[in-house]
Amino acid sequence: MSGESGIKRGMRSMRYGNRVTTVIRFLLGGMLVFSGVLKIFEPDSFAQVIARYDIIPGIVTPYAAVIIPVLEVLLGLLLIVGFRIRASACLSMILMAVFTVAIAVNLARGRRFDCGCFEAKRLGLEFNEVVSPWLVFRDLIFLAGFALVFSAQRHLCSLENHIEKIRLKNLEKTKYE
């Protein structure tokens, strides 16, 4: 026994990449896909949500309303499939940081409105997602999850892991030929 606590071992295992990091990667990827798909088909409606934040110039808003959902879906799919995970997690962290700052700025301005995060009303679901400290906290949790996925050294159940196994197998074959 090394005398190392179970918590320390668990944290080191997560930084290396284990089932927990895999589940977190799948959940965050699914969240991005879900969020993006709900916004992607109604860019005008999402542009109105973006305009409420009063962060970017109005002329840029329609472009952001198209780019953000597409980016969310793309990053989510890459995380789920497990391809270019570090890059996807890094871009997701940046995106989540921007969302968090936008919510925090409007919270500091004393403004309260539907954040437009998931646009679940289109599915008949009523999430009470009003700009609030809770949303800042939630987004910081998401940000920490993306940071964990980004920092993991390996990723189970991923295309990258599968490709690496094939590469190592082929390398081993050529070594003995």
Furnish the topology, listing elements before pairings.
Blueprint: H1 6-16, H2 19-40, H3 43-53, H4 61-81, H5 85-108, H6 133-151, H7 159-175
Describe this structure in words.
The protein has 177 residues and is mostly helical. The protein is built from 7 helices and no strands. Helix 4 (61-81) crosses helix 5 (85-108). The longest helix has 24 residues, at 85-108.
Given helix and strand content, the structural type is mainly alpha
Number of β-strand runs: 0
Beta-strand level of the residues, as a percent range?
A: under 5%
Q: In angstroms, what is the radius of gyration?
A: 19 Å
| Oligomer state of the chains in this structure | single chain
Task: Estimate the helix proportion, in percent.
Answer: over 70%
Cα end-to-end separation? 41 Å
> What's the overall geometry?
elongated
User: Unreliable stretches, pLDDT < 50, 5 or more residues?
Assistant: none
**Element order: H for helix, E for strand:** HHHHHHH
Task: Provide keyphrases for this structure.
mainly alpha, elongated, 177 residues
Summarize the structure in short:
The chain is mostly helical and 177 residues long. The protein contains 7 helices and no strands.
